TrEMBL record:
NCBIfam families membership: PRK00230.1, pyrF
SUPFAM superfamilies referenced in this protein's UniProt entry, alphabetically: Ribulose-phoshate binding barrel
Protein name as catalogued: Orotidine 5'-phosphate decarboxylase
Keywords tagged on the record: Decarboxylase, Lyase, Pyrimidine biosynthesis
InterPro entries: Aldolase_TIM, OMPdecase, OMPdecase_AS, OMPdecase_bac, OMPdeCOase_dom, RibuloseP-bd_barrel
GO molecular function per UniProt: orotidine-5'-phosphate decarboxylase activity
Catalyzed chemical reaction(s): orotidine 5'-phosphate + H(+) = UMP + CO2
Pfam family, one: OMPdecase
UniProt lineage: Bacteria, Bacillati, Bacillota, Bacilli, Bacillales
Domain Orotidine 5'-phosphate decarboxylase: 4-228
UniProt organism field: Psychrobacillus glaciei
Entry annotated with the keyword Lyase: yes
């Protein structure tokens, strides 16, 4: 799996996503989320893989263990490099997800890496405490979910940059810390709450960053990507 910034292809159609990708000359690490996948289905993943891109299929599965396990068995055949679930689904659900992926991976192929969303980067500590009734700090909740994900045999988590260091300390440096909520210092945060710059992401221990609007909505997406890549690589 590449280590370059993961570009969130949050587009409404394959055409919009392809037109965006045509701007770039190199193979990228891209993320397909609910918006694009629910319009286009598995074909978008096949096509992006054919084009030579690494693919994070960000469907954040969260259901009973049997359903998630069976869904992951199917997803394994799509060829994505990275898939995910919500850690709030629990340890048994995460084990079922990993086992489903293993069962669906054909002989000779590597199973996709699987990570769990801890607390969404759009969630504040206040919201978590008042709406989810989790009476602890957001850092503690995220690290707790990371440890649970590790116990379930997952490869890492989605978290904010702000918790990446604590997760590396608790779960080890090889445990993935994939961090959305990336913004440039002068950029709009939009709906994100726990945000950080690409440079801080590297300094504070993210293993991968996910960047959507700061690239896709930029006047010059290729230049925006290059700037972010430089900030990410310079601080390694
Ligand atoms: O906690 C999470 C989990 C997933 N995401 C996804 O990442 C991108 C971020 O897009 P931006 O435009 O850079 O805000 C988006 O696809 C989310 O679904 C997240 O933001 N936070």
């Amino acid at each position: 799996m590449k280590n370059s910034p993961i570009i969130a292809l949050d587009f409404a159609s394959t055409n919009d996503a392809y037109n965006f990708l045509l701007l770039f000359e190199q193979s990228l690490f891209v993320k397909v989320g609910m918006e694009l996948y629910l319009q286009e289905g598995p074909s978008i993943v096949y096509k992006l893989k054919e084009m030579g891109h690494d693919v994070f299929l960000d469907l954040k599965l969260h259901d009973i263990p049997n359903t998630v396990g069976k869904a992951m068995k199917g997803l394994a055949r799509l060829g994505a490099d990275l898939v995910n679930v919500h850690a709030a689904g629990g340890e048994v659900m995460m084990i079922a997800a990993r086992e489903g992926l293993e069962a669906g991976t054909t002989a000779g192929n590597k199973r996709p890496s699987i990570i769990a969303v801890t607390q969404l980067t759009s969630t504040s500590e206040k919201q978590m405490q008042e709406e989810q009734l989790i009476k602890t700090s957001i850092d503690e909740s995220v690290v707790h979910y990371a440890k649970l994900s590790k116990t379930a045999g997952l490869d890492g988590v989605v978290c904010s940059v702000l918790e990446a260091k604590a997760i590396a300390e608790a779960c080890g440096k090889d445990f993935l810390r994939v961090t959305p909520g990336i913004r440039l210092a002068e950029g709009d945060s939009h709906d994100q709450i726990r945000v950080a710059t690409p440079a801080n992401a590297r300094l504070l221990g993210s293993s991968h960053i996910v960047v959507g609007r700061a690239i896709t909505k930029a006047e010059n997406p290729v230049q925006a990507y290059k700037n972010i890549l430089k900030m990410w690589e310079e601080n390694a």
